[in-house]
Amino acid sequence: MNHVKQSSIVADQDFVIEHVKEKFSCTVLSCEGRPCLEYKTEEELMQISEYVQALFQREVTDVFFAAVPSVDMD
Questions:
Q1: Are 52 and 16 in contact (CB under 8 A)?
Q2: How crowded is the C-beta side of 25, counted as CA atoms within 13 Å?
Q3: CB 63 within 8 A of CB 35
Q4: From which domain of life does this come (predicted)?
């Protein structure tokens, strides 16, 4: 019998987050223990979304609890 776990087919959330952090200069925050993506521009958010979809066949909202724009500290 050949049993394949569902989790081995679908990329682990932490694995996807680590890849996003390595590829993009974004920040991952924690909100009540859940990962939140902090992005710099709408273009960066679109690039991250496309990357996650292309490589992992997941929506960015399936990986991150929320996506929020960075706030400039002036």
A1: yes
A2: 4
A3: yes
A4: Bacteria
pLDDT of the residue at 71:
85
Query: Would you say 67 and 60 are in contact if contact means Cβ atoms under 8 Å apart?
Result: yes
Report d(CA 31, CA 65) in Å as an integer.
Answer: 8
- The model's pLDDT over 9-52, given as tens digits with 9 standing for 90+, comes to 457 999 999 999 999 999 999 989 999 999 999 999 999 999 99
Query: Which structure tokens are listed for 65?
Result: 């609890």
How far, in Å, CA of 70 to CA of 54, rounded? 24
**Residues facing residue 31 across a β-bridge:** 34
DSSP 33: T
CB 16 within 8 A of CB 56: yes
